[in-house]
Amino acid sequence: MTARIVLLNHTFSLFTLKKTAVCILFLSIFVHNGYAQVRKQSPDQQRLYLALASAYYWVARNSDIDFDSCYIYVSRLNNLDRQLLIQENMPAYNERENFISPAQQLTELKKQLFGASGQNKITLLNAIGSFYCFQSGADSKDLDSASYYLTKANTSADQKSYRFIRIQNLLSFGKYYYKKNNIAAGDSCFQKAVMISNKEGNVREEALSWKRWSMYKPLMMMNPVDRISFLGKALNLYRQLKDTLNQIYCLTQTSYIQFFIKQEARSIHSNNEALKMETQIHFHYSHYNTDMMALAYSVLGKNSEYMNDVLASVASLDATGDSASAGFFYKRTADMYLDLVGPGEEGTLWIAKAFDAFQRVGYEDAVIRMLLTLMTYATSPLQYREYINLSNRYLKSNSLLSPEQKENLELALGYCYQHLNEPILAELHFSRSEKLHLQNASTWQGSFNGFPSFLMAKYCIETKQFERAEKILEPLLKSNTAQSLSKGSETYLEHMLFSIDSAKGNLKTALTHLSKYQRENDSSYNQHTNRRLEELQIRYETERKDKDLLLLTNKNQLQMISINKERQMRNIIIGTSLVFLALLYTGYRLKQRSNIKLQKQQAEINSQNSQLQVLLEEQKKLVGEKEWLVKEIHHRVKNNLQIIISLLNAQSEFLENPTALNAIQESRERMQAIALIHQKLYQPDHGTMINMASYIQDMTYNLKNSFIQTNRIHFSLHAEPIELDVSQAVPLGLILNEAITNSIKYAFPKPATGTVTIYLTRENDCQILLRIMDNGIGLPEGFEINDQGSLGIQLIKLFSEQLEGVLKFKGEKGVEISLLFKQVNPSAEFIGSSKKEV
């Protein structure tokens, strides 16, 4: 249990991998909209955000990267233009809506320099030189290029009309010399910039000179008190200019330095002043100030203020979606819960958020350290396997890992294999970690880096390698790290030393360590208990004040309600009486008017109903008459066609020419095909549609009776009960007549027999396929349908075109005629034609 508390006090914690996954999944739901929110701010507020976020990130990382790399990181993450900072007080020649890489920005500046002249050229020369000064690190090529362009700008800027640019040039030269580690030359440049701007009365340039001097001078080369003094001079000048944004920056940076020189109360005052200004200008990124205040309150032991400011920081962070340093803010929240409440779900939730935030921004060092902690809270073999896979991925995919990162990854692998009961692999990775650990011992700083020592020593004690455990802990005891260990770490260290000495038989020293362990453990328990009591007291006092305030508010509200009720009752009685009388009269008048109106409407409705009834009767009568007339027309057309057929029969009695007789017979059959359609149309209960299955059956029957040779021919009919409008039934019937007649006459020369097959099927909702085929002698060789001039074939082609169908002839093993056409909806045709007429 003690080991658990120590681990929690050392670093981060998670209660189970499953809950970690849930926390991370919950966090991933939030869209990181800081990018969008920062972009919505004015350029001046974007500049302030870049300055505050970069400075905080640099401080949070303990200055392990240079300040310019922090600028690039924050600008890229938020899609902002870094020139907002580089060219402050100057035209931003490369200001963009979106972030572009430094190389691209430099290319754009050089393009603008080509062909430039006068002040524009000097400004661009200085901008390019400044740009090289703001590159990551201190590369000699970048610094040589900076010197070249800044010198050219300086030579031209000596003229009186270009003094404004000369101040900017001096500030960039000062940064250049600091990067070259020529501190005296850098100080000289900044001192000249301050003197010239002061002499010329240029307050804004003097303020910028003091501010940048405090910003750019290397950390170890300036006394913190002097740095605060420079920021104070810049602050006073910005107050004269009423430049709120720069006042916020100066106050925030001053608060950082005041905290580090143990002036916590002054740091809180500076941050409070900055927060008031941020509220006035609606600058929402207040977490960079409240976080520093939380740190100061934690040192002063003001736990209530400490908790409030930590929670205010993460609230501001989440509201703005600012992800640049989110992991550090979430880590601070987890530490707060561990300090004030102790181990619990609240702290582990914020650890999960911090872990996810570090992963998103690719801060591998923090991710690996947290991985080392997460594995100590694994509870299943599956979780250990996942941490093994993750550690191996980091080791294999990144050749630029630091020795400390490699040590932590090897330690994680050893720990996981130990708990998977794989002692050979555990020993292999613990040995590698131990070797790296001893090499890195000289670089230990703070209690966190003692954590690997505890884990390795714990492994050695559990595997009964006590001398090895003592050897691992020996560098820790001899270094400055031991003096900076937390109380919980000291307690755990004493417990391990007790285990080692008791196992080796050093009972005297073992008892000494046991005594210290018990004393420290009791002290830690008391401190933890006091923290819990203090926290409960804070919560109780807060709740009691809230309840008192609520009771007082409720009492006042009840008094006001009582007074208002009396007034309202008096007014209600008077008003209700007047309203009641008015309503009675109004109701009477409305009812009277309504009755008159309803009587009129009822009379109109009755009249309209009578008229509609008369119209319906007349319409029904007209429809009946129309149907009778249509049937009578079809009857008369059929009779007329029968008369023509009879005339043709009579005429054929007086003819002897075979050609003439054949022509009359063909004409008669065509008339018969049309007459059959009209015969069906005038039959009872037979509207305007023709049932083609019945029609084809009647037609084949008539044709069989018309030709002598049909006793050798069998007819096979496969027609679906498809109904067609007369406009399609007539041409289809004539095509059938021509095709069947052709098969009867020519397909089966005597004494051959055969079959004529007819298919009429529906291919889909609107297309119909007609196929007439026989198994006769087929078409003659070289037969081309387009070259035929016979009347029958011409009629088939003509009626197919009328149906807008696709006509095909096949002559293999008999003749097959197929026609695919679209069924016409008579009502749709009628509507279409009506529209055209209109």
Report, as a whole number of angstroms, the end-to-end distance.
95 Å
* Mean pLDDT level: 78
User: Quick one: overall form?
Assistant: elongated
Count of distinct strands? 7
- Tell me the radius of gyration: 50 Å
Given helix and strand content, the structural type is: mainly alpha
| Biggest sheet architecture | 5 strands, mixed
Strand order of the largest sheet: 2-4-5-7-6
User: Beta-sheet strand percentage?
Assistant: 5-15%
Helicity, as a percent range: over 70%
- List unreliable stretches of 5+ residues: 1-34, 92-96, 444-448, 827-838
Number of helices: 32
Describe the structure.
This protein has 838 residues and is mainly alpha-helical. It is 73% helix and 5% strand. It has helices at 2-10, 17-28, 34-40, 43-60, 67-77, 83-86, 102-113, 118-133, 140-157, 163-179, 183-199, 203-216, 224-241, 244-260, 264-280, 287-300, 303-320, 326-340, 345-361, 364-374, 381-397, 403-419, 423-440, 451-462, 466-478, 487-504, 507-652, 658-681, 692-706, 726-747, 791-802, 826-837, and strands spanning 689-691, 713-719, 723-725, 754-762, 767-774, 806-810, 816-822. The strands form two sheets. A five-stranded mixed beta sheet has the order 2-4-5-7-6, covered by helices on one side. A two-stranded antiparallel sheet has the order 1-3. Strand 4 and strand 5 (767-774) form a beta hairpin. Helix 9 runs antiparallel to helix 10 (163-179) and helix 28 (658-681) runs antiparallel to helix 30.
